[in-house]
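The instructor's notes for this session suggest beginning with a concrete chain rather than abstract definitions. Hand out the sequence below and ask the class to guess, before any prediction is shown, which regions might be ordered.
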Amino acid sequence: MGMADGTVRVGIVGAGGIVRQRHYPGLSKIARVELVSVANSTPESTQRAAAEFGIPTTYGSWQDLVAADDTDAIVIGTQPYLHREITVAALDAGKHVFCQARMAMDYQDAKVMYERALASGCTTMLCPPPHYMEGDTTIRRLLRQGYVGPVYNVIMRSYSDNYLDPDTPIHWRQIGHISGFNTLEVGMLSEVLHRWLGYAKRVTAQTLTAIPERPAAAGEGRSVVDRPDALTVVAELENGGVVTFLFSGVARGGADRNSVEIYGADGALRYNFGADHLSGMRGDETDWSTIPIDQSETREWTAEADWIEAIRAGQWGSPSFWDGLKYMEMTEAIFRAAETGQAQVMPFEALEQPARARAAIGM
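After discussion, reveal the predicted structure:
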């Protein structure tokens, strides 16, 4: 049956943590959505996922799942090194795609995905970052209303102690051939920056790999850490403001200090996205005042419902593949700036945001 009667039949490729925590529960609550198939990394893990989710059909490979005619839409929950290949195959098969973040290994991978999405009649969407939803609508409204005026300086900080212990086995996000250029929360904060303040046109970067080797993820021996433990970025925005990004995975107690600060000609905003606390000051004020986040503006996690709504409306979801292309461009520019010691200029090429991305459903 499928789309003819309004039912969206979904297949899952990669049933890892976020699929279990968010995507499966979210999809299972939506009317006229059927989770019909799953393929995971091994036959054993595929069978476990099918039993856990109550999914009737399993496939021995993602290729077989995508090619089968029992699905209308594919959830890609794998690591970034497979995103382009699975996305292209799914779109070529005429299937809608929800792809886990980060979008791709690099800008060129993301461009292939974006261009294939443009050429298809299918709905595509990327997984949004959940960390910044509480204050997102309020902050965007205040910026539109001119709360800070022209933006001069921005500080965006994402600290954690995830990699502080040198005996912690290497994570796949620290392995280049699996994660690509994606580093710490560079993509997430770049996505938020673009949504709130627009794109950057020039970046410089400095990295620190505090622990260059770690125990291998499986088995004996040690593995080389390909992605830095800490990263500082300075970016010039197209609107003239300057942004300082501070990233670290080796900051003891750092998560409590994760924040975004926006300073402009007429005021300032500060958002602690760990505590979901928003404050501001305007004019001659010298003290921060709490800005309540109205319940009507509070964003909740609705990514799966947004994707299904976009499919039924014949639109793209948000974050769109355009949004992903832009944050992968920023991610690669930061990587290249750190690697070469030279400032990187964006955009890499002249592309215009398509109407399908501007009209996307969701964030």
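Then share the key points. The radius of gyration is 21 Å. The chain is about 30% helix and 25% strand.
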